[in-house]
Amino acid sequence: MLSRRTSPFLALALITLSLGACNKPAEVPPPAPVAPAATTPAAPSPSEVKPNAAAPQAAPELNVATLDGGQYDLAAHRGKWVVVNFWATWCKPCLKEMPELSALDAMRDHVEVLGLAYEEIDTAAMQAFLKKHPVVYPIAIVDTYDPPKAFDTPRGLPMTYLIGPDGSIVDRFLGPVTAHDIEAAIARAGGPKATGA
């Protein structure tokens, strides 16, 4: 309960944080200790998505089995811009961005997307889900208790990383991302500008 001395800005910030996050349903245990709901970081709206201003980070290592029976080794995709998207089937903002990420992957030869399903779900259930929500990019199921060590444990979903052609992390987005956001980040990092934009 907020006291009368609580500033209106703080009260608004707490309400926004508690309402804006895309949090895991209570019946699925969280992968790590989670702060109380009032202090859980909220996923920003698309207009609030801010690129990471930090310099590129070292090349992350990622080698995962994909649902199509293949293996996705990030190191084997050097020379491309790779979008690594942490998402979940229960996350509405994640589902909203999937068609756009799929179109980006299909339409841009220099961009690839990899979806990392960050939830406890079996392969058959995920394959059934993807029949209803198809994408052209590979999907891998990530162990929420042992996520890829090269990436921060997602504080919220969706969480998206942009990997440069040299393999380094050049940008990251917490919250929904659009193809325009990705292409603008690629251009800022010295990559090709989007045509027809």
From TrEMBL:
Record flagged with keyword Disulfide bond: yes
Signal sequence segment: 1-21
Compositionally biased spans, kind Low complexity: 35-48
PROSITE patterns listed in its UniProt record: PROKAR_LIPOPROTEIN, THIOREDOXIN_2
Segments forming domain Thioredoxin: 53-191
Superkingdom of origin: Bacteria
Pfam families linked: AhpC-TSA
Main location: other
Protein keywords: Cytochrome c-type biogenesis, Disulfide bond, Redox-active center, Signal
Subcellular location: Cell envelope
Region (Disordered): 31-53
SUPFAM superfamilies in the record: Thioredoxin-like
Name of the protein: TlpA family protein disulfide reductase
Organism whose genome encodes this protein: Lysobacter cavernae
